[in-house]
Design brief:
single chain, about 130 residues, mainly beta, Metal Binding Protein, Guanine Nucleotide Exchange Factor, Chain A, seven-stranded mixed beta sheet, three-stranded antiparallel beta sheet, 1 helix
Length: about 130
């Protein structure tokens, strides 16, 4: 699988058959990062994702005292990858940059406390008011 930004200058190639951990996040930071009502990231072993092209990174603190880093294209602004410091061995790829409308359903939905009311989750997706441990 290959993810890319809008202009194609930043890519992430996923070279694994491992099932991703797909997190749909409704926190206000992810809403601002994605420009949409949620952010969705598929996490893979970091060694199975090859990022190429010029990227800028933005790191912010999380509610749990960790950090979350977004990697985005300096030309078009698309976020292509993400790293959560609490999961040092994995790298996330933003699901929208994979441009696959048949991508699997999220593994979980987090920060539902700030989920837009009109967004309905499939009943099979575990839902959490804050992080996964809430």
């Amino acid at each position: 699988m290959k993810a890319s930004c809008q202009c194609g200058n930043l890519t992430a190639v996923i070279v694994t058959a491992a099932e991703p951990m797909i997190v749909l996040c409704h926190c206000l930071d992810c809403q601002k990062r994605s420009g949409s009502p949620f952010g969705e990231v598929a996490y893979y072993p970091a060694s199975d994702v090859a990022v190429s092209g010029e990227a800028r990174e933005f790191t912010r603190p999380t509610d749990e005292g960790n950090t979350f880093t977004s990697g985005f294209c300096p030309t078009c602004g698309s976020t292509v990858y993400a790293r959560a410091s609490k999961y040092p061995g994995i790298l996330g790829v933003t699901v929208g940059t994979l441009a696959d409308p048949f991508f699997p359903v999220p593994s979980r939905s987090v920060f539902e406390q700030s989920r837009h009311d009109w967004i309905e989750m499939p009943p099979s997706v575990p839902r959490h008011p804050r992080g996964r441990n809430s």
